[in-house]
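Record type: monomer structure entry
Structure origin: computed from sequence
Chain ID: A
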Amino acid sequence: MTRSNKMKQILDQASINRSLKRLTHEIIEHNEGVEQVVLVGIKTRGIYLAQRIAQFIKQLENKEIEVINLDIAPWRDDIQHDLERTQLPIDINGKQVVLVDDVLYSGRTIRAAMDAVIDSGRPASIQCAVLVDRGHRELPIRADYVGKNIPSSRRERIFVRLQEVDGVDEVLLDRIP
């Protein structure tokens, strides 16, 4: 994605890092440590955000935690697919599973991720961490940990750009003509 002049930067690299550090502290505090925590990054940018949170956890708690990469395509209800559903690569029974994504909008991506987790086992809890919550839910889903609430209209789009994918860390707001 190329950045147009009409896009407004909502978060820069420093703001994203502050948000992720705060999310990390909240995850540690809420779960009374990280011994049973598993991070599940939702493809694509959620994976990199989960990896960054895991790095912050390592810095703060001196513990490495599991990060699972999840492609939710086989569980989506809004696209046709012939993809095989697979189990998560580790045992999640009794774990505190934290789904990590870049933007929470309709709730459909998180619902699909929850289905994937439930198909793989019975975690103690499923929590949700997002960098941006923009509202406009179609399903009764909320994030437990939010980096930034960005109220937006349906005629606006939020773009999260990350160094690992896009070469820069920023969150942009764009109005659809």
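Annotation 1: Residues 99 and 110 are 8 Å apart (CA to CA).
Annotation 2: The domain at 8-175 is CATH 3.40.50.2020 (Rossmann fold).
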